Amino acid sequence: MHHRHQPAENQCSSNLVVHIKAPVDIVSNFITSIFFFLRVWSLVRRFDEPQTYKPFISRCTMNGEVGIGSLRHVNVRSGLPATTSTERLEVFDDEEHILGIKIVDGDHRLRNYSSVITVHPEVIDGRPGTLVVESFVVDVPQGNTKEDTCYFVRALIKCNLRSLAEISERMAVPRPGLD
Ligand code: A8S
């Protein structure tokens, strides 16, 4: 429901899904599954620290507290077709685990980019896991095709989600009553 963008004629839109498994050596019970899921959300929810899991972001600065409408200024690593991006927090729901942003400025070509990421607990092969869904909508830049724009953005998001999976799978999960 939160991923229903309505792209205009000159826009492209898509969804990506990643299933993140909790580490094998932990007890597969309900509590572990919730702890693991909250670990994943704890990385995603930090609007002020996207560089903790997004590999292309080198630095992020903000003025003041995080809230709906806050702006973050992001520096992008060298080698990419951009150096900066200014992004606004549009949706933040700590109960439903939804984060939505809009890119409002920067020296890149992604105009009117909006994305929504949601995080859901799930069971994969009887083990605790987490489902992450990210969707976006963006203008197709002049001189580019919808397919190429979608391919470019999906490639960046895939890297972000793979990195999110790797970091969360590596993080120690507390084992209530065992440690
Ligand atoms: C995100 C998603 C995207 C970020 C893109 C698509 C970007 O940070 C990079 C290269 C660009 O050309 C555009 O959730 C921009 O971060 C890595 C600077 C916005």
Nutshell version of this structure?
With 179 residues, the chain is α+β, with helices and mostly antiparallel strands. It has helices spanning 30-44, 146-170, and strands at 11-21, 57-62, 71-76, 84-93, 98-106, 114-124, 127-139. A hairpin with a 7-residue loop joins β5 and β6 (114-124).
Account of the 3D structure:
This protein has 179 residues and is of the alpha+beta class. It is 22% helix and 37% strand. The chain contains two helices and seven strands; from the N terminus they run βαββββββα. The structure holds ligand A8S. The site of ligand A8S has 16 residues, from strand 5 and helix 2. InterPro entries: Plant_def-hormone_signal, Polyketide_cyclase/dehydratase, START-like_dom_sf. It is found in: Cytoplasm; Nucleus. Its main location: cytoplasm.
Question: Features of this protein?
Answer:
about 20% helix, about 35% strand, alpha+beta, binds ligand A8S, single chain, seven-stranded antiparallel beta sheet, about 180 residues
